[in-house]
Design brief:
Layout lengths: L9 E4 L5 H8 L5 H4 L7 H10 L4 H4 L2 E6 L5 E11 L4 E8 L9 H15 L5 E7 L3 H9 L3 E12 L2 E11 L5
Parallel strand pairs: 4-5
Antiparallel strand pairs: 1-2, 2-3, 3-4, 5-7, 6-7
Helix pairs in contact: 1-3
Pfam families: Acetyltransf_3
GO molecular function, one term: acyltransferase activity, transferring groups other than amino-acyl groups
Protein name: N-acetyltransferase
């Protein structure tokens, strides 16, 4: 657990008590574009998800953690997805629920904690992120945290306003022995 505790926040496993937070976040249409969500989630479906959230990353190929502030309040989620232990890589995504909590260092600290965990505990060689080109806040965050822009997927994501390019970022574990 110490690997997932920072100066101002903690990354922790999902709990049954997170149902209302997850319901609110997953049904927030303002983030559907970045999450790939196409329809609302019911509380029943999310409750089933929470009941299975304890499953091992090696089995389900993903890990979702709550980002909690100093008071223990869940303020966002951070994920490893497409976990590939053979090639020692995974995708990484982050969302801070309340816009008022953004651009205050929370994302940077959470991303730093999860990168350290992925490299030191899961022994990953690399992490990657896919970010829409108009999501300047996320681009700034990932570049600040040492992710390198490695390519552009042209007209990759279809949105209500047309197709958007997606930029791929990558971070290689340079501390491997």
């Amino acid at each position: 657990m110490l690997k997932l505790k920072g100066d101002n926040l903690v990354l922790r496993a999902l709990e049954p008590s997170d149902l209302d937070f997850l319901y609110q976040l997953e049904n927030d249409t303002s983030i559907w574009e970045i999450s790939g969500t196409l329809k609302p989630y019911s509380k029943k479906v999310l409750q089933l998800y929470l009941e299975n959230a304890h499953r091992d990353i090696y089995e389900v190929k993903q890990l979702r953690l709550c980002i909690c502030d100093a008071d223990g309040e869940c303020i966002g989620l951070i994920d490893l997805f497409d976990f590939d232990p053979k090639n020692r890589r995974a995708g990484i995504g982050i969302v801070i629920a309340n816009p008022e909590d953004r651009n205050k260092g929370v994302g940077a600290e959470a991303l730093s904690l999860l990168c350290n965990y992925a490299f030191s505990v899961l022994d990953l060689h690399q992490l990657y992120a896919n970010i829409l080109e108009d999501n300047q806040s996320s681009i700034h965050l990932f570049e600040k945290m040492g992710f390198e822009r490695i390519g552009v997927k042209k007209e990759w994501i279809r949105t209500s306003s047309g197709f958007k390019n997606e930029i791929m970022f990558q971070k290689i574990n340079l501390d491997e022995s």
